[in-house]
Amino acid sequence: MTTFRLLQQTNRSSRFAQVTVEVAASSWFDVEVTAAAVDEHRREAELGARWALRGLPAAARVTVTNLVVTEVDTSVGDVYEATARAVWQALRVEYPVPYLGFSDPGMVASWLGSMVGRRLEAVTEARYWSEGRREADVESLLHAWLFFGSAMPVGLHGGGDQLLLAKEDPYRSYDMDEYGETRVGPARRPDVLSGFVGARLTDGAVIVGQDVDEVCAGLVLRFEDGDLVIGTLGDEWVLAVGPVPSAAAQYWAVQPFVHGSCR
Length: 263
Hints:
It contains five helices and 15 strands. Strands 8-7-6-5-10-9 form a six-stranded antiparallel sheet. A five-stranded antiparallel sheet has the order 14-13-12-11-15. A hairpin with a 2-residue loop joins strand 13 and strand 14 (236-241). The protein is of the alpha+beta class.
């Protein structure tokens, strides 16, 4: 039996979730949540455990036996992350992925709902530079972090046709010698994401792709002064102001807006 406590407090927000798991050897990967909890937290625990088991060399059975949360300090993604870390701790494996993000459309929609009404205070971007130059907006973008008021920054990580949201701080700039460098800093005009800093989020919708396993492929963020579309398609970023670009629309489906607002 292993317990992991996620406890983080900053001047912007706080996070808390405590998860206890039992992990046993098995002939197949399996997850069961027996802890008494609301459906939302049980779902996060199951998804977090399954994420932790991905890519491991030996199958295991995970039973989530206890969940502890608070009304004030626990928000979307906290139980998910605490469960994944509890499983890794039980298996004595190092953190096997560069970031721990969630892509379940239901979780993403819940996160969007909790951000509605907040202002986008800042956007930080990681971009690829070579010989003192960078390509255009989409071509040079690696990752982005959204800073909504009184909330943990959320990193956007694209891979294939899947967008992952990770509650994390931006990483630092780094040099890759002859291969260029990654510069991390505030979004600047005329790049698309910079145009929404300071605006209030009024609604949002999850974009799903055509994978057999339904995952988030992108977001429509509806601000006071316009819609922002951000997603990943074929391992490339899609950024647009206004409606979903036609080149992506044939592969994407926009789910209902979380608050049902319209223009």
